[in-house]
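User: Hi! I'm working on a homework problem where we have to compare a predicted structure to a textbook description. Could you give me the structure for the chain below?
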Amino acid sequence: MYMYLKQARIMKTVLHKADERGHANHGWLNSYHSFSFASYYNPEKVHFGALRVLNDDTVKGGFGFSKHPHDNMEIVSIPLSGDLEHKDSTGRHEIIRQGDVQIMSAGSGIAHSEMNANRDKEVKFLQIWVFPKLQNIAPRYEQKTFLPQGRQNRFQTVVAPTGGEAVTINQDAWFSLGNFETEATASYTLQGINTGVYAFVIEGEVEINGQKLGRRDALGVWDTNTLLLSSYTNSEVLLIEVPLNLQ
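Assistant: Happy to help. Predicted structure tokens:
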């Protein structure tokens, strides 16, 4: 007689503190890198599964990134304040504002520019790169506005592989935003198979699965089905769920 025991998963985490991020200040651009990027390299912070880049950028008025190429990368931009002007080689010309989420599937190749649309104030935004599921697809662009009441004391999905109310990503990945009042609680159930979640605290102080996090701290979590959040102050949190194994 044989006895088979199902091995229980033991939750794993990795903590990335805000003050341990890479940093580059070019005058017109002040950028913090959660993962290795440009001149910043940390062999322990190259990627979190399919999540390759999370840059926290501030661009002075009248400045920005001139036209440059990308291919085979899913690029998500989330403005935090100010207005970001986007132009690309497909002829798109858009303004992205706080409350908007933009995705550009670079696919077989695209060139774009990102400029501060204003000369009298900064623009602050998160730019996030995710390795794609399918290579060399036709480049595509999508942008949607999400009302803040849709994420009050709960998580609102803003990026998903199936699209719907969210913008569509060429990967089994989900981005969710939540705004939480002091002492609010919320939970998040992972949606994918063999995925993990990178939780990034945009503002405030929270606790996620027993780990206290402050402004711009991040926690990677995997081998669990659920995230439990408690807020100590008014807080804003971004969850990025991605496959852990790159194909």
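For your comparison, note the following. The chain is about 0% helix and 55% strand. The chain has a mean pLDDT of 94. Good luck with the assignment!
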